[in-house]
Amino acid sequence: GCLKNNVIVALHDYYSKRIGMTVSINLRGAGNSQGRTSWTGIPEQEDVRTILDSISNRTLELHSSMTDRLKTTAKKLSRFQDNSKCYDDVDKQVIGEGDTVLVPLPLIKNVLLCGYSYGSVIVSGISPKLYPSLYIDYTLISFPYSVLIFLTVHKKAYYLEQVQNLVTRSLSFYRNNHQTPAIVTPLSSARASTSSLKQLPSSSSQQQQQQRQARGSSSVSLPAALNTTSTTTTNNSNSNPLGVAAMGSLKPGLTSTSSFHTQPPPRVLMIAGTNDNFTSIQNYKLWWYELLTNARKEVGIDECQTNDGDDDDDDDDDDDDDDDVNKSNTTTSHNTPSDDIGSGGYDYYSLENLDKIFENDKLPIPENNKCDGCFDTFIATDEDHMWFNRETKIIEAIDTWW
């Protein structure tokens, strides 16, 4: 793949018209990019990090061989940086050093790293701890889960651990008693996806105000594939806040001095089709539920809420939370297995049991979930790994979630 891939082109075109700046890059060895694939993904992470470094340092370093195009880019970026000024003399805003041109960037806090296929593997390996000044969210599209061993020599366990760390890191901040912060929504069609996405729980206006204050006003989206796309925006009074996450309660013992920093943690969105060419939807579900189960155990959540049955089995210590439960939906809880889970959780969750857990393609979750978006998964019915002429489903899922 390369930055001409249909998924990347669709994401790039969509966000470049709606957010300030969109950047797509080929990883080394992809498309016209020099170098060669490393088969470990570590050097490719450095390719993506060059963009994040530029955002963090507020300076975009570009090669001077495309002078005219760079001046046009600099002019646009300068206008974006300060809407009250129009820089006609771009040369005064661009400082050249040798074979490079340094373009000043505005202050950016929110970043969306979006990876498609092999690109989703690469971006998952970039820890948000490397960029304490940025609030990074992740969208992993058609993650090549079942063939990961062939794409990353001796690094499969490393990347799976990185994804697990992202989910655990998110849940540790958004934890709220026994609520399960994960959503799986079927996207059978563009129209169906829109209606189903609108049913996602939303925060109150007061919560949204707190979220905006916590996240700041500037946002960047970095959609990626075997290449990477970066998008930058500054919210105005008429736009919805991007990259906003609901604030939950910290697990006791997780203080500001722990390994989890006190900034809003990364949120993770998984997108996959039911007819993926490399990973079955059942294996995706197994993996997603394993991620959620392991994260819940790590942060001390021992039970799982469902939307079926009654609350006869609820623990007595949940009584204080009764007022927070949506009375229109009765809930019950069941113990999440601990020692019963075999390697990767597959021994315990047979495919038959998994279909019951994912009844109606939705993980058990209370209607009043206060952990909006910290770990979401979207399933597109009848879609394969390529997404030809179905890219709008991906865009709708990301746009609504982010």
TrEMBL record:
Sequence segments annotated as region (Disordered): 195-250, 303-344
Where is composition skewed (Polar residues) in this entry? Answer: 327-338
Q: Where is the signal peptide?
A: none
Q: Where is the composition biased (Acidic residues)?
A: 308-324
Instruction: Quote the Gene3D superfamilies the UniProt record gives.
Output: alpha/beta hydrolase
Which residue ranges have biased composition labelled Low complexity? 195-240
Please give the InterPro entries that the UniProt record associates with this protein. Answer: AB_hydrolase_fold (IPR029058)
Protein name per UniProt: Uncharacterized protein
